[in-house]
Amino acid sequence: MAQENLAVVVHSPGDLRLENLPIPEPEPNEVLLQMHSVGICGSDVHYWQYGRIGDFVVKKPMVVGHEAAGRVVKVGSAVKHLNVGDRVAIEPGVPRETDEFFKNGRYNLSPTIFFCATPPDDGNLCRYYKHSANFCYKLPDNVTFEEGALIEPLSVGIHACRRAGVTLGSVVLICGAGAIGLVSLLVAKAMGASQVIVTDLSPERLKMAKQLGADFQLTVKKGDSSEQLAKSVHEILGAQPHVTIECTGVESSIQTAIYATRSGGVVVLVGLGSPMTTIPLINAAVREVDIRGVFRYCNTWPMAIAMLSSGKVNVKPLVTHRFPLEQALEAFETTRQGVGIKVMLKCDQNDLNP
To answer: What is the DSSP letter of 235?
Structure first.
């Protein structure tokens, strides 16, 4: 095992560095992983640019990265289900205690949860990383490391579609064709949605949405009113959607989501924007449109692995750029500029394959 553990570390706003860190030793219930593929998320870029997201503030140097897959190189003494050499996808949120949220299956809401690359917890954009073995999931032979890393954003889509109640025959509106909007599209289709319409400002992203199975695309123009956009959605579909998954966090888009959704339907808010947002709440209330939040995900990795392994979902087109770990700063700049969809960092010098 190489003794170098190169890691991508945020020190303060605008200060992102490549540093060598000690290789960690796994505890009895942990495994040490040689990282292979780690995707860059918008939140990683946000911590680099601003040093905080909401109440989560970078107060000490923090390793970034939480969309990840790697290979087991050392196994803790109490671990029974994983062996050296196993290829695994990492679920980044690990409960620290058996609280009420853990017991009722909604551990993502636990206030004390460990979460990769959320202050003060380090992420896994490095050569070697240790993680709870119970939150490492073995990858089938026909699922690549990159697909394993993409299970993290895919899980957001699964959790959103579950919260929305997407089922056979659902008509779905997805606001935003970034990575999360696109995985929500893939999951909605896999769960049986009959029609999915995707909106975005970018024609290029809508082209990708069409490639991934969107039935309709609607280009949003700055200055379009929320009610007019909702009317356009209705006209294109010939009906109002049962479910809207809002992935932008933009106030006007949330307003469109509410106006567009049919009475008795569900709006799920995935995108995070301003803490205070003006929305047509009475319109939602009198039409019994349920507004539901999403915070990360829980209990999604097994379903995601089954979706990928069976071929029901194809996330491979989402990866548009790849960089070796040594070029992490360039990779982050590419993501910051909004180029492509998903930038993937390759952490294993000896294996740069997907």
So the answer is: H
Superfamily of domain 156-293: NAD(P)-binding Rossmann-like Domain (3.40.50.720)
Q: At a CB cut-off of 8 Å and minimum separation 6, what does 283 contact?
A: 258, 259, 289
CA 195 to chain centre: 23
C-alpha torsion sign, points 110, 115, 118, 119? positive
- Spatial strand order of the sheet with 62-63 comes to 15-20, 6-12, 62-63
Model-level pTM?
0.96
The strand pairing partners of 19, in sequence order, are 7
Which residues share a beta bridge with 175? 199, 246
Q: Are 102 and 113 in contact (CB under 8 A)?
A: no
Judge whether 133 and 20 are in contact, CB under 8 Å: no
What whole-number distance in Å separates Cα of residue 65 and Cα of residue 328? 11
Q: What is the pLDDT of residue 3?
A: 62
Identify the sign of the CA torsion 69, 72, 76, 80. Answer: positive
- Tally of residues, the chain: 354
Q: Out of 3.40.50.620, 3.90.180.10, 3.30.565.10, 3.40.50.720, select the CATH number for domain 6-150+315-346.
A: 3.90.180.10
Element (H, E) at 173: strand 171-175
For the stretch 64-94, pLDDT in tens is 999 999 999 999 999 999 999 999 999 999 9
Q: Which residues of 90-115 are buried (b: 16+ CB within 10 A; e: fewer)?
A: bbbbbbeeeeebbeeeebbebeebbb
